[in-house]
Specification:
This protein is mainly alpha-helical and 565 residues long. It is built from 24 helices and two strands. Strands 1-2 form a two-stranded antiparallel ribbon. It is globular, with a radius of gyration of 23 Å.
Length: 565
């Protein structure tokens, strides 16, 4: 079959998912099984993969999805535990004392707090934690989800202590790095991190201003961009507070800590500044208005009470202590130099291989204690019962409600991740005899078609391939694994700087977090919007496109100026 037709066939599952969720407003719990069925049919009829192999990849996806579901469960559990303990109302009380302006709250929590959590843990954790916190402060669930998904972009390249760069490109490129003239892989990773800052920094400043305007235009009482843009000074203040330590660590240390340190230092600075009125909006306190006047599409299963006066049931320190513990434990368990990371990775690891289907090499491992849903989320939820002196009936309600809310995201994620595994596994056909050429995988077929079409304009669009990878796989790290070698090859064939093109890939994988199905399903679960994934995707698509335009312009400019290392 012609490569272009193959690319169209490979694209079909994504098209089906988009039409069902965005066009027909079907929930992901119904849409993703149909998208998986489309992908499985393509793998069987066009790629010629054996039915048993497709089944093995599907089961592998189900096992992998359990890891994501544990994270979602843990994030939901923290939310419900704090709600029943009185901690969440105390946080609401304290946050309103910092600022009652919801534009400021969006920047403090959705932009900065989430950046710190991304730097420490990654893998969808920030939006799952920050969105419920915004919801508890009176944000419409749809607005809270969109804010946190879009802001979970610029920190992602350096998320989970540099995993997308170090593990993603390290796995994808292997010996190519040393063959390319680099003395060490660490030197290569550091240069990629330095280069990608050129692409992220413009959006670190643009995105908060754009998103506040976006939110006030589509969710504000006046439905205008101007209300959001009026908080531009605080956005710039926040961007500077984050960017200075972010750049310092990216350029002088490496890719492990820019987002983590930038978020941690920036959070302290902007909370201190907000309490003292520094760079605050001068047009009065902005809110989403009377919740009875909200559009029905903004809300879901978790109803907003309309309460605007909150009571402190404990000290602010005690209310925030679960989040402090989460942040601290994440840092302690993600730094390679400390023993906890190795211990958690090697303890309670469950590996499931598909030997029962005839494919023992198709396997998936779950590091149960290393998953943030277990440690720290569930662990801290249990500790919170003691810290907040919760009665047994309230603790039971928190756990019960969490289990009830897991039904729809479980179905959606099982089939979304199973589709990912079929995409990844489509580049190998076990039915072929030794020496026969294996097919090109579905993602690489799509990427090659795009590269052939664009030619020398590739730097303008390279980031969208990274975004496509994140959309398909739900991970910047896996996107870099999937397309890192392809981007290297395109750069080499077109005579472009490999550093710039790979940096665009890394930035693209980060911005793809806005639209990836994994994250959207997870956020929908924690803010009670199950079945509304298409509504969110329609909102996050435009910031995603804007981000890609800016990254493309920066990459193209670097190429034109002959930038190289």
């Amino acid at each position: 079959m012609d490569d272009k037709l193959l690319a169209l066939v490979a694209l079909l599952p994504i098209v089906v998912a988009m039409i069902l969720m965005v066009g027909m407003r079907m929930g992901a719990a119904k849409a993703m099984p149909l998208a998986w069925l489309t992908g499985a049919a393509s793998a069987l009829l066009v790629w010629g993969l054996p039915t048993s192999y497709i089944a093995a990849l599907t089961v592998q996806g189900f096992v992998s999805a359990i890891g994501v579901l544990i994270i979602v469960f843990g994030a939901l559990l923290i939310l419900h535990t704090l709600q029943y303990s009185g901690g969440m109302e105390t946080i609401q009380y304290g946050m309103q004392n910092v600022s009652k302006d919801m534009r400021v709250q969006a920047i403090i929590i959705g932009y900065m707090f989430a950046a710190f959590i991304e730097g420490a843990a990654g893998f969808g954790t920030p939006a799952a934690l920050a969105a419920p916190l915004l919801l508890s402060l009176g944000f419409p669930p749809l607005a809270a989800a969109v804010i946190c998904l879009v802001f979970n972009s610029f920190p992602v390249t350096f998320g989970a202590v540099g995993t997308p760069v170090i593990v993603g490109f390290g796995s994808a490129l292997g010996d190519l790095i040393m063959a390319g003239g680099w003395e060490t892989k660490d030197a290569f990773f550091k240069v990629i991190g330095q280069t990608v800052t050129f692409m992220h920094v413009p959006m670190i400043f643009i995105l908060p201003i754009f998103m506040l305007g976006f939110i006030t235009r589509f969710f504000g009482p006046n439905r205008c961009w101007k209300d959001g843009f009026a908080a531009w000074r605080f956005c710039v203040f926040a961007a500077i507070s984050f960017t200075v330590p972010y750049l310092a660590f990216a350029w002088f240390v490496g890719p492990e800590f820019p987002s983590l340190i930038g978020g941690l230092i920036g959070l302290g600075i902007i909370v201190w500044g907000a309490q003292r009125g520094i760079a605050m909006p001068t047009d009065g306190v902005w809110t989403f208005g009377d919740s009875s006047k909200w559009e029905s599409s903004w809300t879901g299963e978790i109803a907003f009470s309309g309460k605007t006066t909150f009571t402190a049931h404990m000290s602010q320190f005690m209310a925030w202590l679960p989040y402090v513990l989460i942040g601290g434990i994440l840092v302690l368990t993600r730094i390679s130099q400390l023993p906890l990371k190795a211990w958690l990775n090697s303890t309670a690891t469950v590996t499931v291989n598909m030997g029962f289907l005839g494919y023992p090499k198709v396997a998936e491992s779950l590091k149960l204690l290393y998953l943030p849903g277990t440690i720290p989320f569930m662990l801290v939820a249990l500790i919170t019962i003691v810290l907040h002196k919760m009665p047994g009936d309230k603790a039971t309600k928190a756990w019960t409600e969490t289990f009830v809310k897991m039904k729809n995201p479980t179905i959606a994620l099982f089939f979304a991740v199973a589709l990912v595994k079929i995409f990844q596994g489509s580049g190998f056909n076990p039915a072929l005899a030794a020496g026969e050429v294996h097919p090109v995988s579905m993602p690489l077929v799509m990427a090659k078609a795009i590269a052939d079409l664009l030619g020398g304009a590739w730097p303008l669009f390279a980031s969208y391939v990274g975004g496509l990878g994140a959309f398909i796989t739900g991970s910047n790290t896996v996107s870099d694994m999937l397309f890192g070698g392809f981007q290297w090859g395109v750069a080499e064939s077109l005579g472009l700087s490999k550093t710039v093109i790979l940096a665009a890939q890394a930035a693209g994988g980060a911005m793809g977090n806005m639209i990836c199905i994994h994250n959207i399903v997870a956020v929908c679960a924690v803010v009670g919007l199950n079945g509304r994934e298409g509504d969110i995707l329609k909102q996050t698509f435009w910031p995603f496109m804007l981000y890609g335009v800016v990254v493309g312009i920066v990459a193209y400019t670097l190429i034109l100026t002959g930038f190289t290392w």
